[in-house]
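Hallway conversation turned thread

IA: we were arguing at lunch whether anyone had actually written out Putative 3-methyladenine DNA glycosylase end to end. Turns out nobody had. So, for the record, here is the sequence (203 residues) and right after it the structure tokens. Reply here if something looks off.
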Amino acid sequence: MNQDFLARAAEEVAPELLGKTLSCETTEGVVTIVITETEAYSGTADPASHAYRGRSARNATMFGPAGHLYVYRSHGIHWCANVVTATDGVAAGVLIRAGRVVAGEDLARERRGERVESTRLAKGPGNVGQALGITGEHNGADLLTGTSIRLSEGESVPTELIQAGPRVGVSKAHDWQHRFYVADDPTVSAYRLSPRVKPVAGD
């Protein structure tokens, strides 16, 4: 994998990240997941993106070159990991929503809880971050040439198994078909409409 692969629109890259591996090494050890679910965010053209209103201290990494990691904290609790895509100066990213732990399962379970099922260790973006040991210190990390966290080639996912649907938990542009996942994979998170979405009259 190279930067050119990632230097495209987020919605083009997102389905092609399925099957790729994401590994994070900390002082505790290494955890690796195979990505099974992603969600694309198109920067200033996307009302649901953190970069919709332009560059800020929080989202600056999204405007950087493709192949870096954009990390943000959700609800003040969970660290969420995004692969920066598009060309330098254009904000875009792919949220890693779920994955299957293929290395370091004991460490992932230690972080997530001893009773958590294997299929749920990295199910949901907050759990991905927790299982991998990602924190705010990883924001801006180089995913292609770095050492602590790497995005690599993994498994080949047949095209017929890749499905698309509306994004989860966002109230703006929630119906955009920018969520991509491996069909029938037990690690994929359940669809949930944001409670902030106002029902349309007549529904």
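OS: looked through it. Residues 3-182 form a domain with the 3-methyladenine DNA Glycosylase; Chain A fold (CATH 3.10.300.10).
IA: good, adding that to the notes. Residues 130 and 167 are 21 Å apart (CA to CA).
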